[in-house]
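ARCHIVE RECORD
Type: protein–small molecule complex
Small molecule: heme C
Source of inputs: curated submission
Record status: active
Notes field left blank by submitter.
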Amino acid sequence: MKLMYPGQASLEWVMNKPDHSAVPDIVDKKRACAKCHEGDANEIGEKIVKGQPVGSSKSVLEPTPPKGKVGFIPVQFQSAHDADKIYFRFEWVPPQIGDKKLDPKNEVKLTMMFDGGGTVDGSNQNGCWATCHQDLRTMKNAQDDKKTKYIKGADLASGKFMDLMQYRSGKGEKPADGYVADAREMEGGKSLIKAEGKKEGNKWVVTFERSLAGLGKGDHSITAGKVYNFGFAIHEDYTNARFHFVSLGYQFGLDKAIPEVKNYVNVTQ
Ligand code: HEC
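STRUCTURE (tokenized, with ligand):
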């Protein structure tokens, strides 16, 4: 998967037709971001990170281009499950980037979000973008430098939230098991068993081990038959907030092949 640098490409920007001519196809034809951008996510990231104008409106989505930062990183994603657990594995070669340490504790953070099987509007097309708004900290219309991700009309009881798991590389840092509803919570979950990362040669390898059962607050249950929408992000090089690389929206299901959907991953035993 190509993880791209999104700059300030918020949900509001990607869903505004004057900025992004694809909006009618997203809304009427239910086209997923990945359907159009799996091939060019790297080019989009390269343009945005350099502060070049993009979209039909020729918007500059990165007003402060980080010096030397690459526009994308290719990541190998794998997943498998057994009777009670699901495993996710991410592998990539870290690019040499930047000299600023926005998060001096953590060289790397890897965060994955997934919905409850079609429970978050739009996430079957846009993955994490359902949580990414222009009024968040470091975004275009930020007013509050503490404001983090949220979902409009979120509801924990009916599953309208994204489950969130995070690995942090800093010494003594613990994995986070939270969720994104009206706000982003970094705790409450009980389903994440392990989140581990290590450098193997010139690669980073991060793995999550999670109960299929939803055990805590903001934990979705993962059951056969459903299709879960997910996305993930990597904060590389001691960075934070929006200065990350993000995946387009993907989907997974347990032992269920859907060959016609390109951005779908069949998780087998
Ligand atoms: C139907 C195809 C299609 C879909 C679906 C689509 N896009 Fe686009 N996107 C385009 C095209 C074409 C452009 C080029 C500029 C334009 O016409 O707006 C573009 C431009 C962009 C850009 C600016 C980069 C550039 O090179 O101009 C971003 C960022 C972007 N899309 C993100 C997204 C995200 C996120 C989603 C999912 C919510 C998405 N797109 C869904 C077709 C699509």
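CURATOR ANNOTATION: The two ends are 22 Å apart (CA to CA).
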